[in-house]
Amino acid sequence: MAEKLKGTTTVGIVCKDGVVLAADRRASLGNMVLSKEVTKVFQIDDHLALAGAGSVGDILSLVRLLRAEVRLYRAKVGREMGVKALATLTSNILHGSRFMPYFGWFLIAGYDEKPALYSLDMAGGVTEDKFTAAGSGMELAFAVLEDGYKDDINVEEGVKLALKAIKIATRRDVFTGDGITLVTVTEEGYRELNREEIEALLK
């Protein structure tokens, strides 16, 4: 069986005023770094986002499907799909595909009446979390999140904590590295920080 192009590590944090998603940019094929420019965090709708760790092709396929589904929902219902509804839809898709699964672990995040974050395994199991991590560097990232998270954290603090978690993972996990993608989802919508902003925060 051919090896799949894989990507890790991802982090999600719920803050009092939004959600933060972050991921590294490395994709590996076995023990080889095949790409240093892989995107693992995606906008699904104005206030909805997905991050994935696992097979790059499967992550992209699921993202295309979910974007189509939320557009159909908006056209039929006349409003944006909620975060929990997107997590449930994703769970149903993953569970229905469990005999030919999407090889990945997925984080669904967004802001409707409040910020929310869900993690989903490839069989469709769903967990609502205040913070979580996925991928080969998840143990390292979780240690940082456990130590730094607090219930009243704001987005500005959440961004710094997410960057720290990914940065620590890049130091010790060989499958994690080559830069960071970081997005926030607040009442104002989805926003991706540019590289200059991330580099300034990492200094």
Multimeric state: single chain
Roughly how many Å is the radius of gyration?
Answer: 16 Å
The total of beta strands comes to: 13
- Biggest sheet layout: 8 strands, antiparallel
Q: Detail the poorly predicted runs.
A: none
Supply the CATH superfamily name: Aminohydrolase, N-terminal nucleophile (Ntn) domain
* Percent range for β-strand residues: 25-35%
Strand and helix order? EEEEEEEHHEEEEHHEEH
Name of the level-1 CATH class: Alpha Beta
Instruction: Please name the CATH architecture.
Output: 4-Layer Sandwich
Q: What helical percentage do the residues reach?
A: 25-40%
CATH topology: Glutamine Phosphoribosylpyrophosphate, subunit 1, domain 1
The gross shape turns out to be: globular
Q: State the helix count.
A: 5
Give the number of domains: 1
What's the mean pLDDT score? 90
Give the class from helix and strand content and strand pairing.
alpha+beta
Q: Determine the N-to-C terminus distance.
A: 43 Å
